[in-house]
Specification:
two-stranded antiparallel sheet; elongated; 4 strands; mainly alpha
């Protein structure tokens, strides 16, 4: 193959991401050590990286092993969700008819799978992508998915825990000793932060911050794969 990035390769890779893992999905990939991903049968199924390795154009570095682990965790999360084969087939067919869109979608997934370092973020990413795949009333559009991928990349896991804490307990002054996470959530448009002072908002509600409409959607998507 002279060009590993031709449309046919992207088409096979996109289908692999959505439907063909080639391994037992009962396995808990998150608990597997990195050296477990040295298995040739696992590597050959990975889009682009597997092709490069087969062509001798890249070696099996720690970074590539981590990517392999992230890839399989992501695949497993998607395939464990309730989405019909017919819907996936339809999406793949739409991508085949629009090579530019297919390339953009696949490259985006691979870039973020490489960037995220924590298993939890890979699972949140899978929920974002799932929300895009189901679209309709309970899902999100691709542009929104791109925004959420980027927000997820910029947040620390402890920031997401702060967001969850606000959803569970509210944002009373005594709930948070450190407001740095609230500041990051606010900078990304997920919270309205009141500079550490308790303010009244909404109906009989008060606190040092409140979740924005964007924050509400982001929270529901990363935790359930649905925006409503």
């Amino acid at each position: 193959m002279d060009n590993i990035y031709d449309n046919n390769e992207y088409s096979k890779a996109m289908k692999a991401i959505l439907m063909e893992i080639g391994e037992d999905t009962v396995k808990d990939y998150g608990e597997m050590a990195l050296d477990a991903f040295l298995d040739d049968n696992m590597l050959k199924n990975i889009p682009v990286i597997g092709t490069l390795i087969n062509l001798g154009k890249c070696g099996m570095t720690i970074k590539n092993l981590q990517f392999a682990k992230n890839y399989y965790i992501f695949i497993q999360e998607i395939r464990n969700k309730e989405i019909s084969k017919e819907k996936l087939d339809k999406h793949i067919e739409e991508l085949k008819n629009n090579p530019k869109r297919m390339r953009k979608e696949m490259e985006t997934l691979l870039i973020y799978l490489e960037q995220y370092k924590e298993i939890e973020k890979i699972k949140y990413m899978a929920n974002i992508y799932y929300a895009f795949l189901i679209s309709g009333l309970k899902g999100i559009k691709w542009d929104q998915a791109l925004i959420f991928f980027e927000i997820l990349d910029r947040l620390l896991l402890c920031d997401i825990e702060d967001l969850k804490k606000i959803k569970r307990k509210g944002a009373k002054p005594g709930v948070f000793n450190d407001h740095s996470g609230l500041l990051r959530l606010s900078a990304l448009g997920l919270l309205q932060y009141f500079n550490g002072k308790e303010e009244k908002y909404g109906h009989n509600k008060s606190g040092i911050a409140q979740v924005t409409s964007q924050g509400e959607i982001f929270y529901r998507v990363i935790t359930s794969g649905k925006c409503c």
